[in-house]
Amino acid sequence: MSVRYHTAQHEDYETLNRKLHNKDSLDVLKWADHSFGNRLIYACSFGAEAMVLLDLLSKVQKDARILFLDTDFHFKETKQLIERVEKRYPSFEITQAKPALTPVEQANVHGDRLWETNPDLCCQMRKLDVLEHHLQPYDAWLSGLRREQSPTRANTEYVNADHKFQKIKVCPLIHWTEEEIWMYIRLHQLPYNELHDQHYPSIGCTHCTRPVLPGEDERAGRWQVLARQSVVCIQKEDVRREVSKSISTE
Hints:
This protein is of the alpha/beta class. Helix content is 37%, strand content 10%. It contains nine helices and six strands, in the order H-H-E-H-E-H-E-H-H-H-E-E-E-H-H. It has a six-stranded mixed sheet with strand order 3-2-1-4-6-5, sandwiched between helices. Helix 3 (48-58) links the parallel strand 1 and strand 2 (65-69). Helix 3 (48-58) packs across helix 8. The relative contact order is 0.18.
């Protein structure tokens, strides 16, 4: 069954999620592949959840389209991980999409260290605008959201209406726990970002990410710029509910 955003009504999503209720993540991916085929893309940040979702996706869609938002400010460990993923899944079509402005051009136009002076604008230009542009040819996109991650994600369904981008957002991992994610990674010897071993459970740009302290929420290390949180920073959902539900790629 193929469902396009502009024809899908609220009841359609409810019906779909009822049908998928007892299905596992692989079944959801098979449904997404059957429904959308090459009109499906995975906007991927290469976090721990992404490693699981990529591996599952490889069993369903060998030539899957993967989108990484390369802000020019990622950790070297993140870029090294992408190289390892490309070797493990050579049939994947991985696009590393860059913003319109280089860091130097951005500084010339908006001033130095925009991530401090206006982090919302920085994320808008370097992530959200890029994501919106690259999602345009597609009907649906995958996300690695898990309900356990935060209260704002607790009601996420397998199939969701993405009102911001007018797409369908498919979240196959909603029922997974953090423990299950890491069990799968270790069982299948998947590559993962080495920063996870240095107390970085959630990894974004270098100047917006810090290690998480014992007892803190797993995403407490994000958006650490003058104690300000960016509205649209990806994996980007816990900051402001309406924007974040639309654009997370974890």
